[in-house]
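Now for one specimen:
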Amino acid sequence: MTLEPRPAKHASQVLRLVAGDELTLFNGDGRDYAGRIESAARGTVVVRILSAGDPEPAPPLAITLGLGISKGERMDFALQKAVELGVTAIQPLFCKRSVVRLDAPRLDKRHQHWLGIIISACEQSGRRRLPSLGMAAGLDAWLAAAAADPPAAEARLLLDHRAPQTLAELPAPEGAVSLLIGPEGGLAPEERDAARAQGFVGVRLGPRVMRTETAPLAAIAAMQVLWGDFRA
């Protein structure tokens, strides 16, 4: 197979791999693929696939992160680290206090940028299953879709520093978890009310107010320790 431009550039110009060198590829389907470079010239890298590795086990806790869209590097950082911590799906959300506003062409470009960050984070962390990335949507639309087609046995958590309970006080979820976190400035009161109306339960992470790029990482790490694959 011929590698796509980005991994081809990484293999030939960054790693300096040449014909005969072996490497490991992944395409997000849950397996690693051992390969050997057949040719590498003028930015085109052709690889022969030698074997498929064992499938990556399904995570014990499937976490969907609904994250208010924040500015540039903050959003990139949150996405990258969420993937490293084992999130299963990511849904970028436009909220009332979102500073970022994008028209259709810019939104498509940003979506591709975020997808590239997710792929790179999988490569770095050794993940073989690619987390899904939803197209950015309004919070109201996302909540309405969740109400129309609720997943079975899904726990719904709303990160709110005003909430009376912590993650450790909640019972272990029986299935998947959806975690909702607002943008800079947090969710507006009416947005929190709308989320609670759809079954989201408010939880806090200790006594401190965290930034929008810090909060999801702390919450995901805590959930992985309590209920997920950090226990293994």
Q: What stands out?
A: The mean pLDDT is 91.
